[in-house]
Amino acid sequence: MLLKHILLTYFVLISLKTNAQFFDNEECSVTISDKYIRKIIPVNETGFRNPLLNQYNLKKNDVIYIIPVKFWIFKNKKTSNDPSELKEFIQYLNYYYSINNTGIRFSLRPDYEYINKEKLFNLRYYLQAPFQSLKMKSKACINVIIVDKLVKKKFFNSQKKKYAGTYNPISNGVIISRNISTSTLSHEIGHYLGLKHPHRGWKYKWFQEPVSRTKTMPFSKKKMCECKGDKLCDTPAEPNLTKYTDNKCNYTGWNIKDKYGEVYKPDTHNIMSYTNNRECRNKFTKQQIALMLHTLSENKYSKYWKTDITENKKYLPDAFEPDNYKETATELFFNTPQIHSFHSIYAGKNKKLLYDRTDWVYFNLKKTINRPLTLYLSSVEFTFPELLISIYYNSQLISEKKLTNISQTNKITVNKAKAGKYFIKIQQIVETEREKKYMIFIKN
Predict the structure, then answer these.
(1) SS3 263
(2) Which of 61, 364, 378, 386 would give a disulfide with 429, using CB separation of 3.0 to 4.6 Å?
(3) How many CB atoms lie within 10 A of CB 138?
(4) Cα radius of gyration (the chain)
(5) Sign (positive/negative) of CA torsion 117, 123, 127, 128?
(6) Least confident of 72-81, 182-191, 278-287
(7) Inter-CA distances, 297 with 45, 93, 271, 312, 316, Å
(8) β-bridge pairing 358-365 and 420-428
(9) Please, which residues have CB within 8 angstroms of residue 147's CB and are 6 or more apart in sequence?
């Protein structure tokens, strides 16, 4: 009986949160405490709220947090296990968060899982998505479920709608469909990091955020832009832009006004907006960045994600991750050294550490050479107890060498190398909790 009440309460909560918004592409549900925003964005002398970004002293390319993302991929018999799509998701995530200098980066957890369930390949928004979001969950990471299609069927209505993604505030999980826009996952994770839609409440006069940045609340000096919409004053008030932007992200709602009669002037490039063409979205504002950083600082796992804590170095991936499989190999260019590392992954209290102990790189040889091609490998900072280096040409193993007590530079040669694509697998044989860095270099 108790379980029935719990489930009923759960579905009511989900319904209340999701029924409030219906969109053509993404469906997001967000509940953020207003005190978060008011705490981190204090009023300055002009009356507006400014983000506390100065405390981070962010410079270009600075990284404060590296957050692991675990993917749960629903598949059917026709779907291949191809981790290259996961690498692409991570690369786009890092692209959008990097160009906005958020100080946030993401890494792929190597324990991603493929779930071969035909009935969940196309996931039902109301009945299946909430349960799967609660079920497919690991600690100390952002959990993302990938389905072929996320489908919503309105009650007592046979019509179905397809959605690109959703965020569940109860499970803190994200669900996305395949073949989505490059910005959709960044949008959904923006919700995980505390952001709301700039158009939040625009259809309802009482909740509507005005265009003016100076209007105050009744009987109060508080700015309306601090209390309505997404509660951030540097994101312009806007309607739902799905119907008011063209494919080039030009705003077409020139005659749409707020309840005070002012014409909207939205930013059609904000990642948290609902532009008609989702590919146009590429921007976070300063206050959005501040809110995301504060949300992270409150996360119980953030201490394992911070880059400035010495003990965390063993948990932080190198810049070439994910490269754990042949399909996600990093390209190695001639005469250009790369520094890679092996590291452990924090999986939660009382959980066994995960280890990244395999790297793949590849290089393309444009023409056959009649002299040896030399690969150099050396340790950085600490000595490796043992490594196994395997070189493949056209999926055929052509060379393998075990290296022990690596401190000096080691040479591996390929004699009379033929033109084509070569893959190199670098494997750490002995697991250690301390991060191990090595430099790899190929000379032609």
Answers:
(1) strand
(2) 386
(3) 18
(4) 25
(5) positive
(6) 72-81
(7) 26, 20, 22, 15, 17
(8) antiparallel
(9) 74, 120, 121, 122, 123, 175, 176, 177, 178
DSSP bridge partners of 374:
413, 443
Determine which helix (DSSP H) or strand (DSSP E) holds 161, and give its type and residue range: strand 160-163
Could you give the domains of the chain? 22-296 (3.40.390), 312-443 (2.60.120.380)
What's the CA gap between 205 and 228, in Å, rounded? 11
pLDDT by residue (tens digit) across 47-89?
434 555 556 667 788 899 999 999 999 988 777 788 999 999 9
Q: How far is CA 12 from CA 5, 30, 393, in A?
A: 10, 15, 57
Cis status, amide bond into 130, omega within 30 of 0: no
CB contact at 8 A, 351 and 106: no
pLDDT tens sequence across 137-182: 999 999 999 998 888 776 665 566 778 899 999 999 999 998 899 9
| Tokens read off for 282 | 């590429």
